[in-house]
Amino acid sequence: MKKKPVILASASKKRTEILSACGIKHRVVVSAVKEEFKNGKHIKDLTISNAHKKAYAVSQKVKEGIIIGADSLVIVKNEIIGKPKNRKEAKRFLHLFSGNTIAVYTGLCLIDMPAGKTVSGVQVSGLKVKPLSDSEIEKYLKILKSYDKAGGFSIEGAGAIIFDDIRGSYFNILGLPLFKLKQLLKKLNINILDLIQV
User: Is 165 known to be catalytic?
Assistant: First the structure.
C-alpha cells in the first residue's frame, strides 16, 4: 500500500525539526492562518480550533497527504498567552511567569486527504518557572529573543535555566507532542513507526 505524504501545516522550525529528528519525512506548507487566543473560548478549544484552521487551509491546497496542524498556547493566572508581539510584551510575559507554574497546551488536528477524515486532540504540560529578578529577565531576553514561540520563551539550551520542574510531555512544550500525534495517527489507521525512514 502506497504511503501518503506527511504535510506539516506550520511555519514552526522546531516542529519540522522534531519530525525530521524522528525520521519522519515531510514537507511544510504554511497555512498563513491568523491564530486566535482571546475570544472567550477555553484554551483547549482555542488550540484545537487554531490547529484545525491551519490544517483545513492547507487541505485546500493539496490533493493527497496526512496534514498536521498544530497550535500552542500558554496559560498562567487565567491569562491565555500566545506569541509576544515584541520585546516589551515578551518581558511582561516573563514577569508574569516568574515564580509561577504555567500550563502549555498544544492542539493537534490531522486531516487525511483526499478522504477528508479529521481527528484532533490536545496535550497539556506543566512548567514551573523560577523566581526571576529584573536583571535576569533582561539578560534572558537579550540571549534568547524567543518571540516566535508561545509565551516568548525557549526550554532548550540556555532557556532551560529558568525552569525548575516539568510535568508532562517535553515535546509538547517544544510544540509537537509526539505521543498525542501517535494516538491521532492510530485513529486514521496509521502506525507512526511506518512513517519513520531509517
Answer: no
